[in-house]
Design goal:
heterodimer; A: alpha/beta; 3 domains; 9-stranded mixed beta sheet; two-stranded antiparallel sheet; 24 helices; 11 strands; B: alpha/beta; Rossmann fold; Helicase, Ruva Protein, domain 3; 13 helices; about 15% strand; globular
């Protein structure tokens, strides 16, 4: 309890006072992200320019650049396509269905010369036109290159597919043998030289053809090959000439069911191949019945692709291009966050609202703000929304035409932008301004007026709903819930006080983008106009799948790692010595090593001198003692010879010395080998 | 006897030996293959992995007599084969048979004895007989030698000569058991298992020595396709032409590969050999028969590497690839 109380206190301490909401808003709008406050040439839309009259020409403390932006050229939104209707756009008549709900509801019929909301609908009702796909300006050479590359690609694909399919032609076109053909006259079984066929369907066709011809031996082998290549294409095994059936079965270790099936097939096949069991129709039937369910799983890949596309299209991420413009609501969300109000845009359809949704742990329910361009609910959705509010939640209609049950409608005609708080909505002495002339007109006395214009026309009315403190609040427009609304006077404080007064911490904003979400993955694809592209990609994948199997690349063995032979290293080293004309140096090193080896191999004790060594070598090998001694002395004399042959001798002398050195090394190597080798 | 009965007996043997030797199923299989193929097995592994236990358990399960010789540097050939001793009562020499006169012989740390003593086993292993003082005495049937050597301690050892190595049908490498296996082993010890008192385990004798000889003879009925003879020949020939191999496997290696392949086929209930039998057993059968070039050894190449290269180049008969 103490801990939770401390947390509550700390939260309360972190939350700024309501009176400082205006100052807090100034800090928020001071960020560069809000370009309309800092860029004098910020392109405002016509709708956003509605703030210009109340802002006036004098400098605004929160948005210093806004008066200048009012004089800048307006934004052109025609390239924004379907998003044109939204906050920067002109009205909700472009949203969703083309059918105007007011046409069906006589109570909503506007007076001549007025729209049902009295604003933003009348002047510019533009329909979105599908832009035609156009080739970029490439120039003459670019066009030629483009078509050459495109044509070449298509031609190459056709050639590859044709070549691949023609590789099976000789076997495929072999006329079927008659059923009662003489087995002796049947084609010979597959030989090692037979052309390798990897296509599973071709192998199965061959198996069936061989079976129908009575050659069950070949039929079983072809069916077995089809099974292995199917598994190879699926990446489950790796077929290679050096791999055995046992290797393939072991590859399937992680899949015990498949492994068991393949093992049974392999046993039957090996009985025919290496055992004494003759291949007959019953064995073939048994094998083929086990193989066919495994190899006919081609559709799985396409299904997985479709599933992946569906999953991608169901991604709930919502992007919002205008959230930091004057008609956006990002500053509202930031301001709410500072006052522990969790404001976010709703991402699920209004049809998903639960009438009996619980009020949550704090018993304050939730607040839902339907902005001006929110999708207009149908009759059943209105009922659901009102029931939801009856249950203790808070529904705010900001500029959205209210349901007929409220006996209220919106029209234009307010003569001032100045707003006043009513006695019913005693939030202090606030100075408020809005931008439009939309006002509320009610046909009964129900509801509590909250805000009115200075000319006494109504701007906001609240209706209490149900016994659980639920309510519906209707605003004539949604200006107070936008970034632009926060620019002026005490509007930020009013917004925070109003939302706080409702009591709910979780607040959802519903805007026009909510209805843009597709109901099905197919709608998503259709909305993005990617259907032709996706169909082409799927067709290409299908072709590749049928051509190559799941693994599109050509299967091949991994390159074997080769290592240099030790003698190659020695040859390279010798070449370096030869280029450096260092034969004497090499001979001196080798002679030192060879003398050591010879002494070790022939003498058990450390006897000084070369003669005992020569005597022992001659005794062991049968060589002439004097000749051995001569070689040893020559090797020993090299040890003291430190001269550089390139300096000490002429070119001819060097060539002669090279030959002598090589001969000496060969003699020493022979002696070393004769006395037992280098080890 | 049908292949299935043969396989069933082998499974029983494996299960019985596996009761006391945990986590060494592959070694048990290979040793059994060696026994059935009338061969001898050289096991390389550090002490304490249960080699002696396996021989004793195998002897018990196969109904054979087992003996053990601990090879030491001062072991004499007569200590292995036995020799003539003068009997003063009878006033004549009498032959006292050595430990080699048994059915299952464990030659422990065979590389500790000098070559002369190792050679005493040559005739016994190859001809299954022992000749002393001009008299040749046959060894009991079946006769199976399981020799061990320690790969770690090379000080004071006498590496087996190539002729001796070639007498072994297979060379097996025993490694330490896994953690789980070792824990199970300890749990058995906690429950009272004592390797020295094998009788307390209650191992059942599955076959008799006569049955075992019959099973050995049965392997002659296992069919070997002509393609497989080509496959064996190809593998062995490739060991001789491998660039890292100084001396490849001998024809005895080919015969060993064939015999072990047959034994494996029978153990799996088949009456025919398949390429997988040959390929699976090739490393065990060939690794001790290859002599590598010094430069290959210098580069760290092992006989197993060469065999794997050979197996990855030899085309398997009747493959679908």
């Amino acid at each position: 309890m103490i801990a939770s109380a401390l947390v509550m206190l700390s939260v309360m301490a972190a939350e700024p006072s309501l009176e400082s909401a205006n100052e807090h808003t100034r800090k928020i709008l001071a960020h560069d992200n809000y370009g309309f406050c800092h860029n004098p040439k910020y392109p405002l839309t016509d709708n956003e320019a509605g703030w210009c009259p109340p802002v006036g020409p004098e400098e605004n403390s929160r948005c210093p650049a806004y008066p200048s932006a009012c004089d800048a050229p307006r934004a052109i939104l025609q390239d924004l396509g379907r998003l044109n209707f939204s906050r920067g756009g002109d009205g909700k008549s472009d949203v969703g269905t083309d059918q105007d709900p007011a046409k069906d509801d006589p109570s909503k019929q506007d007076k001549p010369g007025e729209t049902k909301s009295g604003k933003r609908k009348q002047p510019k009702r533009e329909t979105y036109e599908e832009p035609e796909a156009q080739m970029p300006e490439l120039g003459g050479l670019g066009y030629v290159l483009f078509w050459v590359i495109l044509g070449g690609g298509v031609l190459g694909l056709i050639i590859i597919i044709t070549r691949n399919s023609s590789s099976h032609k000789p076997e495929d076109e072999t006329p079927a043998e008659p059923q009662d053909a003489d087995p002796a006259a049947l084609p010979a079984p597959a030989s090692p030289n037979e052309q390798l066929v990897r296509d599973v369907s071709a192998l199965l066709d061959q198996a069936r053809a061989a079976a129908s011809a009575g050659d069950y031996n070949r039929a079983i082998q072809r069916a077995h090959a089809a099974l292995l290549h199917r598994l190879d294409h699926d990446g489950l095994i790796r077929v290679a000439p050096f791999r055995t059936n046992g290797d393939y079965v072991r590859d399937l270790g992680p899949q015990p069911d498949l492994r068991g099936s393949v093992r049974q097939v392999v046993r039957d096949v090996e009985q025919v191949q290496f055992g004494t069991t003759p291949a007959d129709a019953s064995l073939y039937e048994r094998v083929i019945q086990r193989i066919v369910p495994i190899v006919t799983r081609r559709g799985d890949t396409l299904l997985m692709l479709l599933a992946a596309c569906s999953l991608y299209s169901c991604d709930g991420h919502k992007s919002y291009p205008f959230d930091r413009s004057p008609s956006g609501a990002n500053a509202v969300i930031e301001l709410g966050a500072a006052y522990n109000l969790d404001i976010k845009f709703r991402t699920t359809s209004l049809t998903a609202i639960d009438r009996a949704e619980s009020l949550g742990d704090d018993d304050h329910g939730r607040t839902m703000v339907l902005l001006h361009d929110a999708p207009e609910p149908g009759a059943s959705e209105w009922d659901r929304l009102l029931d939801w509010a009856d249950n203790g939640h808070h529904l705010v209609l900001a500029g959205l035409p209210p349901p007929s049950k409220l006996n209220l409608h919106i029209e234009t005609g307010a003569t001032t932008h100045e707003l006043l708080l009513t006695e019913e909505f005693d939030l202090g002495d606030l100075d408020l301004l809005t931008a439009d002339d939309a006002r509320l007109v009610r046909s009964d006395a129900l509801g509590r007026p909250l805000l009115r214009f200075a000319d006494d026309s109504m701007y906001a009315i609240q209706y209490d709903r149900g016994y659980r403190s639920g309510d519906v609040t209707v605003f004539a427009d949604d200006r107070l819930f936008t970034n632009g609304g926060l620019m002026l006077r005490d509007n930020p404080e009013l917004l925070v006080r109003f939302l706080k007064d409702l009591g709910a911490r979780d607040i959802e904003l519903v805007d026009g983008l909510l209805d843009l979400g597709a109901d099905t993955p197919a709608d998503t694809i259709a909305n993005t106009h990617l259907t032709p592209v996706i169909l082409q990609i799927l067709a290409l994948l299908a072709i590749l799948c049928f051509w190559r199997g799941v693994r599109f690349g050509r299967p091949h063995d991994p390159p074997t790692r080769s290592r240099r032979h030790f003698s190659e290293h020695i040859e390279a080293l010798g070449t370096h010595y030869a280029r450096a004309r260092a034969s004497r140096h090499a001979a001196r090193i080798y002679a030192g090593w060879a003398l050591e080896r010879l002494r070790e191999k022939t003498l058990s004790t450390r006897t000084p001198g070369l003669y005992p060594v020569a005597q022992a070598i001659a005794g062991r090998t049968g060589d002439d003692e004097n000749r051995v001694m001569e070689t040893l002395v020559e090797a020993s004399s090299l040890q003291g010879d430190g001269g550089d042959p390139r300096i000490a001798y002429s070119r001819k002398a060097i060539a002669s010395a090279n030959i002598d050195d090589l001969k000496l090394m060969q003699d020493l190597a022979r002696l070393v080998r004769l006395v037992g080798g280098p080890r | 006897m049908t292949p299935h009965q043969f396989a069933e007996i082998c499974t029983n043997i494996r299960n019985q030996v596996g009761r006391v030797l945990l986590g060494q199923d592959e070694i048990i299989d290979n040793v059994l293959i060696g026994v059935l193929a009338r061969g001898h097995v050289l096991i390389e592994g550090v002490p304490g992995l249960g080699k002696t236990l396996m021989v004793r358990a195998l002897a018990k399960v196969l109904g054979c007599v087992a003996k053990r010789i601990q090879f030491t540097p001062d072991l004499m050939p007569s200590d292995v084969t036995g020799g003539n001793i003068y009997n003063q009562q009878k006033q004549q020499f009498e032959f006292m048979p050595g430990p080699v006169f048994t059915q299952l012989l464990l030659a422990d740390e065979i590389n500790r004895a000098p070559a002369k003593t190792q050679a005493a086993l040559l005739e016994a292993m190859a001809d299954r007989s022992v000749s002393t003082d001009g008299v040749t005495r046959p060894l009991p049937q079946p006769f199976f030698v399981m020799a061990t050597q320690n790969p770690v301690e090379s000080q004071g050892t006498y590496p087996l000569p190539e002729a001796q190595l070639d007498r072994f049908l297979m060379k097996l490498d025993v490694t330490h058991p896994s953690r789980e296996t070792e824990k199970r082993l300890l749990a058995n010890v906690v429950k009272g298992f004592d390797a020295a008192a094998l009788e307390s385990v209650g191992l059942e004798q599955v076959v008799t020595a006569e049955n075992l000889v019959f099973m050995q003879n049965y392997l002659n009925q296992i069919r070997v396709a002509d393609d497989l003879l080509d496959y064996i020949t190809d593998i062995v020939a490739r060991t001789r032409s491998h660039r890292s191999v100084y001396l490849g496997a001998s024809p005895r290696g080919s015969i060993a590969l064939l015999a072990t392949g047959r034994a494996r086929a029978a153990m799996e209930g088949r009456d025919f050999v398949i390429p997988d039998d040959i390929k699976t057993l090739a490393p065990s059968v060939l690794r001790h028969r290859l002599i590598l070039h010094p430069d290959a050894e210098f580069e760290g190449t092992s006989a197993d590497d060469c065999i794997q290269t050979v197996l990855s180049e030899a085309r398997v008969p009747k493959t679908a690839a």
